[in-house]
Amino acid sequence: MTPVARGPIGVFDSGVGGISVLNAIRRILPGEDLIYVADSAHLPYGEKPRAYIEARAQRLAAFFLEQGAKAIAIPCNTATAAAVDALRRRYPELPIVGIEPAVKPAAKLTRSGVIGVLATTGTLASERFRGLVEREAPGIEVLLKPCPGWVALAEEGWTPERDHIVAEPLSELLGKGADVLVLGCTHFPFLIEPIRRHAGDGVVVLETGEPFARQLHRQLVVRGLARESAGGMGTVRYLASGAAGEAARRIARLSGQAVEVRQLPPAYC
Ligand code: DGL
After folding, report:
1. Mutate to test the pocket of ligand 1, among 99, 147, 186, 254 (most ligand atoms within 8 A of CB)
2. Considering the domain 103-207 in this protein, what is its CATH number?
3. Span 9-99+210-268: which CATH code?
4. Which residue has the CA at smallest separation from atom 2 of ligand 1?
5. Is the CB of 184 under 6 A from ligand 1?
6. pTM for this one?
7. What are the distances in angstroms from CA 192 to CA 121, 125, 184, 236?
8. Quick one: 27 exposed, middle or buried, by C-beta within 10 A (0-12, 13-18, 19+)?
9. I need a surface site. Which of 78, 102, 137, 171 has the fewest CB within 10 A?
10. Alpha carbon of 153 to ligand 1 centroid (Å)
């Protein structure tokens, strides 16, 4: 099917993480209609095998195409690492935009020569991530820190009793001299307050929501698929593969607005 400019953009993540990027997409591409799928029945992606995540991405891509999507945005580092190449091979006519940890700017910004990357186990173990580090951070010490506990914390909500889950990985990375921290998972910007508090003022914390949204915009413009807003906002439809009510509560808590979340059709769950 040939993509057309009036079609929606399909956006997915394992849960609420992509909502941190959705906000940037809404700011930079306000006229676009979006379909956001929280693949919450399969959360967390970060601890599952690559082939499993690729199969989920293929299933969700088929759903988006059935909805007439003109592009697929993957604001999920784990799913990008596992599946973006396979999706692009399968749907060469479709813009498919993935996300990657901000290793390149971190390598430019560090003064100590040590950067810390906090992400999922799947992202850090991927070939795509290894290639990124080899290409963009030669000569830099790159410390890798899988943080599965942070994904659960972002989903369920930070509480003072669980603050140590944020503090421990940070103190390890800072103790080894990291002066730039890369949030390589889209769930982590939702923990930005405790992260900044523990990291302190001298440490730079990078995430990639804005650059991702700009890249999506560029890809649409290049292919003549952008829908410039004439003042009006596009729509956002939310769906979840897991419990829709719980997904709605989580998205509302993190986006600050009430949302309606529908159940993803069973064939795609
Ligand atoms: N938000 C995702 C990422 O950016 C995945 C988190 C998870 O489900 O483990 O990697």
Report:
1. 186
2. 3.40.50.1860
3. 3.40.50.1860
4. 76
5. no
6. 0.97
7. 20, 24, 13, 25
8. exposed
9. 171
10. 12
DSSP assigned state of 189: G
Establish whether residue 208 lines the binding site of ligand 1, counting it when its CB lies within 6 angstroms of any ligand atom. no
Q: What is the pLDDT of residues 201-256, one digit of tens each?
A: 999 999 999 999 999 999 999 999 998 766 678 999 999 999 999 999 999 999 98
CA-CA distance, 106 to 231, in Å (whole number)?
Answer: 36
What is the rounded CA–CA span in Å between residue 143 and residue 4? 43
Count of helix runs (H) and strand runs (E) in the chain: 11, 10
Give the chain's length. 269
Residues of the chain with CATH 3.40.50.1860: 9-99+210-268, 103-207
pLDDT tens, residue by residue, 58-88: 999 999 999 999 999 999 999 999 999 999 9
Q: Is 45 in the pocket of ligand 1 (CB under 6 A)?
A: yes
Mutate to test the pocket of ligand 1, among 76, 80, 128, 188 (most ligand atoms within 8 A of CB): 76
- Residues β-bridged to residue 181: 116, 205
Spacing, Cα 175 to ligand 1 middle (Å): 25
Residue 57 has which token pair?
């991405």
